[in-house]
Fold each of these.
Amino acid sequence: MKFYFTYILQCSDNSYYTGMTNDLERRLEQHNEGKKRDCYTFNRRPVELKWYIQCTNPTEAIKIEKQIKGWSRRKKTSLIQENWQDLIKFSKNYTEYGHPDSRESSTGSD
């Protein structure tokens, strides 16, 4: 059975890179060797694998990759740290719940 992986790397500049591959070890080596000058990770080496998920269906792995690429940094960090409570909190729909920065303070000080 063939496996596919969606993964998150942490780059030397502390940014995250999300990708998908059918050979995780090989792909990590390629990122760190800097095979492609136009790759996001080329000038951000070394990179470190922080999270991955294994899939049996390439379509599912691509779907997960695209979903994660749309996430905020703090949501990706919550996933990496397996902090499910924050992951849920950072997944809230601001249209429905309002953005935390726009909510009034409840301190009562004027």
Note: The radius of gyration is 17 Å.
Amino acid sequence: MASVFPKYFLWGGAVAANQVEGAYNVDGKGLSTADVVRYVPPEERGSLEELLGMTRARLEEAIADTEGNYPKRRGIDFYRRYKEDIALLAEMGFKVFRLSISWPRIFPNGDDEAPNEAGLAFYDRVFDELRKHGIEPLVTISHYEMPVELVRRYNGWASRELVGLFVRYAETLFARYKGKVKYWLTFNEINCTLKAPFLGAGVLVEGEANPKQLAFQALHHQFVASALAVKRCRELDGEAKIGCMLARKLIYPYTCHPLDILKAQEENQMAQFCTDVQVRGVYPSFIKRHWEEHGVAVEMQPGDEAILRENLVDYLAFSYYMSVTTSANPEGAVRGGAGQAAGNLSSGLANPYLESSEWGWQIDPVGLRVVLKEMYDRYRIPLFVVENGLGAVDRIEADGSIRDDYRIEYFARHIEQMGEAIKDGVELWGYTSWGCIDLVSASTSEMRKRYGFIYVDQDDEGKGTLERIRKKSFYWYKKVIASHGEDLGNP
């Protein structure tokens, strides 16, 4: 039987520069916002907001600290081991590899007069190595990191100054890698600026009377910068495709009470308003009401609306890990027995019909099909699942093997639902599983939460040999790609 996945479908995996590269102070690279996030042991962590937050005092302390445990400074040493890692991806049969470029590796301070040639040359080598193995790079221009100096000087994306600096950075990439990179994304999970302003936009909110004002203003600057990057990409490389990227978590009503249904609808709308701007070119009406109710007044310059309207993305990429439920009366739901569910930079009420991962993320493969159908019906442009995966503690057996059947089951069920969505008429370009090789966690900066098909021998303290070990899922995914998504059984 022919595969339901189209012939052009791109199978692969995804990582981010700040979570794998390491070499944080090598070859002229500047310090990034990811490099100042210290590891906090689980027993010392507070809320996720506290963990992801940043103050100016903590920032300056981290910049001066050269001895502390800052895992993203070391990553998994992809900077030196990229050939070995790419060879492993090629062994699995990857058609595409999603990676990001470190902004401070190209412009160490963000506003330098000229780009850092050593940084540009590194990505030339990476792209050449991918091409040698027949793997298309899918490149995110800004993935949860920026030059830390832009935070110190401008408070990150809270300042309009970053629009021009980002566009110059993007132009540098488009010109340098024309013919080497066909697929671009502007910002990773752009909507997470609302949940984690420092992580998503390098914005410090301490002392702000209305943090929402700062976050929405930063988002507007990112929207304008993204649209201008789309414009310049098309002017500099007419063959390339450029898209946007959303963190998409499906939210169900906890009950069929009309107010629960309305609450879920509103939360799903908020999850998608960023792509309304980037795909449709306009702010949706519901966000304007949200601004009014929360005292937000976004400043726009003359011409901003035209910039957004005239430079729409070619495709919509998104991450999908889990679903949660919501209620208009969450306290009452909890008193009635509702549990809590964790999630990707957010949480919600648990769905009693779903299982959860070790980190409390609910596993909902059918939800991926729901999201694909809803988003395609809403936007009618090609979609790309660029993050999906299961974080888990992997154990090495006595014989040296890693039998991660739980990960195989997770992926198999989600890929199956992607196939169903394609049968439903969704235009889906590809799939890149998150953390195809073990990497440092974005939110907790730990290594023990592993996503990869490839095990990396390193712990939360940075100890280990960095040896790469193929997990059972490595051989399973190789078979999935070879069968073009038809054979999802155990190897």
Note: The chain has one domain: 10-482.
